[in-house]
Amino acid sequence: MQEHCRDSSLNDPIPQEYIMYLLPTGPLGTSLQEFQAESLRLCGKNRAHGRFPHITLSDFFTCEDGKVECLYAALRTAGELVAFPQTISLSLYSSSSFIGFFLNKEAADAIRSFTESFCHQVSTLTDCSLKPVYRDFHLTLAHKFSPHHQMTLERLAKSISPTQSCVWEAAIFSRDMRFVHYQTLRALFPYEPQNDDELKLCVGDLVFLDATGISDSPEGWLMVACHRSGCWGLVPENYLDKENETITWVKQRKNDIAEEFPVPITFTTVETRRVLLVKHAESLDEVFGHHWLTDHALVNGVYYRQDLNFPVKLPHRNKVQDFEEDPPLSSCGMFQARLFGEALRDSSLKCVSVFCSPDLRCIQTAHLILT
């Protein structure tokens, strides 16, 4: 959340897009992933490499943020109402532009009933217009490939045993609808901006590119939006490489529907878990600037409390100068953290686990809240 502090769209009421997939896991899932890797190595990329192995159960649909919990309830209810087959048989099919598995009729009918139930529940609970997928359910192995690669892809596909044990998961994924038609790229190198219209990059950062606007950017540069921060800016074109669009998708919920051995579907009620995100309290650099130590608090190399908002003393360190790059909390910041901790205590909220940045100001904030 702190990374998005300069995201101009942070508070915009933009809903996410959702879709439901049926995912193979276990030995069959592993074989399918190995097929993707080997087919990419031998034949290059085709459209099937853009997404992980799956069977599409719904089209994309939008849902208001305040009603997302209803999607989870719809998935749970659909799983309770529909009896799934003990096994799902897969039949290999191949053509000049498509290679994949189709489901046997019994399994397809059961999954279609599940999908219809889910869509009905979603439409009832969220007022979303969601219709089930009526085309034949299939699991794509290769799509839109070069004709001279067909034999190699067929050979690899035939090496997959469709009778392997498999746990099938019905999962809901979400994506940012603002970047649906954008390319997803990954940063190969770090980049520090030299001008105000440029974007900072860290290795591995994911960015979104509007391919229709490439001609409007300076030669050798691309105008992109950073997935990590939500900020826009120019970056060097040769610092980026293409990435699959699903890398930024979020897996919201899943439900196991068919397992290696037939077992009834059960749902266990668990206690709600909550995550409390806390920004560090006021630190000295936020009040007195980045050079707060050398400009205000050092006298002949010794820390001096020049202002009441400075702490009485600093924690022990080998070099006091290290605090300039890792500043502590101010006196007001310490008071803020203690007050926040008292509010948590009075609200009877109990923290089970705490994850904290190694920055001194974050450690101090967490310590004062807990004590």
Automatic annotation (TrEMBL):
All residue ranges annotated as the SH3 domain in the record: 180-245
Entry annotated with the keyword Glycoprotein: no
SMART domains in alphabetical order: SH3
Domain of life: Eukaryota
A Gene Ontology cellular-component term: cytoplasm
This protein's record includes keyword Signal: no
Pfam families with a match to the protein in the record: His_Phos_1, SH3_9
Keywords from the named record: SH3 domain
Name this polypeptide is given: SH3 domain-containing protein
Source species of the chain: Eleutherodactylus coqui
Lineage: Eukaryota, Metazoa, Chordata, Craniata, Vertebrata
